[in-house]
Amino acid sequence: MSSDSHALAGSHAPTGNDARTSGHDRTGGRGGSGRRAAAVGRHAVLLLAAFVMLFPLLWALSASFKPGSDIYNASPLPFPGTLENYRYALREFPIWRLLVNTFVTAIGVTLLHLVAGVLAAWSFVRFAHRGQRLVLGLVTVALVVPPQSLIIPHFLMISRLDLRDSFVGLVVPQLATCALAVLLLREHIKAIPPTLIAAATLDGASPAETLRQVVLPLLRPALGAVGIVVFITTWNEYLWPSLAAPSPEHTTIQMGLLLFATAEGPEHGPMLAAAMLATLPVVAAYFLASRRIADAFLQAGLR
Amino acid sequence: MSTLEAGASTLDARGHANRRVPAAAVRARLTPWAYQAPVLISLLVFVYGPLVFTAVLSLLDWDLVSPDKTFVGVDNYRRLVEEPEFPHALARTGLYVLALLPFATIVPMALAIMLWKRPGRASDNYRSLLFLPVVLAPVATALSWRFVLNPLGGVLNQVFGAVGLPEQDWLGDPDTALWAISLITSSRFVALNILLYGAALAALDRRAFDAARIDGATEWEITRHLVVPQLAGTTVLLSFLCVVFAGQWTFTNIAVLTQGGPDASTDNVYYRLYTYAFTFFDAGTGAAAAVLIVLILTALFGLSTLLRRRRVVG
Prior knowledge:
heterodimer; A: mainly alpha; globular; B: mainly alpha
């Protein structure tokens, strides 16, 4: 675990180099052994927290390599291990199909949110038109409407239009949650120096040209961050795919995993192997860009 | 060039009643709406329209499929209030909030302070590791928990047996199931809120703490009397978010692990809404539940805004 965690910090510079030299190593006049005990205690608490939070997944990972007869074996490591569960899961669980479905869905939702979000955010900053307060209010209130309270009309809408088990039915109603992207992007556009925008306007650039030539290039990191948050949220969505795309060929990985687990019944090995296969791409992506992903959520959280 | 002029004339039109509206001015007035149209239409079609539709639906008796709907007035609401299920689900939602509140505040605050006190490579690594639960697939996580908590041979019961504690059917016993679901959901709260507390801590001025240290304050005193009070605003905000999201975030775990059972002990308002609509095909009662949930949330937001305003003024 520790080698992983070293790799994932990347080249990010620690946030307070100066602080470490300015008295942070002193622990109230205690001797060296006291300081070492405090450091050990700190690592113990942090490791324990990480362990408790990640334990079920680690345990499931280990168990997924155990043969069926051995799966409740209490040994933490899977010896002798087997790939049988994975072989079975890859045969019976349409993982590639589900991953592609999920990826395409998440990309679709992300693009819709970003395009709609940039246009609206830009108009909030660039134009002072009369309806602005009203529209902004509508966006803000939409942010707090729980998605679960909208499922009945959404479900009726796509059933009536015969869009169940379709890409459009899965993706388009998720525009309901675009308010977050709008408000985040608005903050980022507001942070662009107004003189830059004014200069472009004086040079005769239309709002569309200013957006394309001045705002979008500066907005690229923000678009990336907001995109990451929307993408991961959509990837992890379970409720809507379970209603909009209930069949295994059209659904996303979360719902597919649940369908597979239900079909397998009490047989845990293949279910755990499938769960690990579904988790792997996310964990890999996270370890490649953990800093960026965490920062993206931070910006979303501090809106 | 024409758009620039048009921009100027819109400003003009705001002041003076439009005496004569040239085509360019009309276009300029429409431009902002064109930019906002995608979002505005999305929200009207997928949020506000559905809310109105839900309100209408809540006055009907309908099974989602048959062509005949009957107008029943407030009968659905009366059912929700008079029959025990919805008040029960509301009470269970309250228990979820209480169970998750420490994991939204005290636990992530303590961990974030530990990380903040010693910045560096090790803390960055811990931070990355502790954030992982936010991005992990919730269904896979829930299934892993089901395996760990399995009453027959699950590792938790093996550990309990080994140290002489009674083994439990964690998710199958009405006395423990809600706490088990809360615990499973807690890691997401802890993970996200470590990050948010970390941001609040990064904004603090370290020099004040160094001064206190020079004056002989112990680390614990500094944390207790200087750091924690400055995090009060963040704590209030995160508590409020916990109240709002405890129900929403437990939903997937309930759906995957207990379906609201045993004895409805793990039910919450969102799962109840879902059950009315998609298990019993009682669209009217489900819609009435949705309306009540939105009203309760609106009241909570109103209250929090009022409280915040009073704190700013007073």
